[in-house]
Amino acid sequence: MTTMQIAKVAFTSEDRVRDVIHNFNADGFDSLYPKYKGGRKPVFTLPQRVEIKKIAKSRPAEHGLPFSRWSLAKLADFLVAEGVVEDISHEGLRELLRAENVSFQAIKEDVPTFVELDWRSRD
Questions:
Q1: What is the 3-state secondary structure (H, E, C) of the chain?
Q2: Cβ-based neighbours of 70, under 8 Å, separated by 6 or more
Q3: 46-98 tens-digit pLDDT
Q4: For the chain, what is the mean pLDDT?
Q5: Any residues with CB less than 8 A from the CB of 49 and at least 6 apart, and which?
Q6: d(Cα 91, Cα 77) in Å, to the nearest integer?
Q7: Are 59 and 68 in contact (CB under 8 A)?
């Protein structure tokens, strides 16, 4: 098949077909599975990750803040203000905390959970 015929079948340009063929000729089947990924890789050191996890598991009141629970945005702002990290987005923070198995599910200690409720005692 010609590059024009391949481009029509693959719904792409002839230039792209030529690039793929050239890469395949140079690298073989490895060229079909490129190693690059989009975006910048996280650059947090192990001590930074430990500190982020420690602060995330604490309550804001322990740090003199006037709210009872962390939001991702508030925690990210606090980490930057305290100098733990130079910059972090709330999405990057969410991914880091998920990787460290830290959850932000709100649990109220004084309210019984659904399992603890006894619906038969409604007299």
A1: CCHHHHHHHHCCCHHHHHHHHHHHHHHHHHHHCCCCCCCCCCCCCHHHHHHHHHHHHCCHHHHCCCCCCCCHHHHHHHHHHCCCCCCCCHHHHHHHHHHCCCCCCCCCCCCCCHHHCCHHHCC
A2: 56, 60, 78, 104
A3: 999 999 999 999 999 999 999 888 899 999 999 999 999 988 888 889 988 98
A4: 82
A5: 96, 100
A6: 12
A7: yes
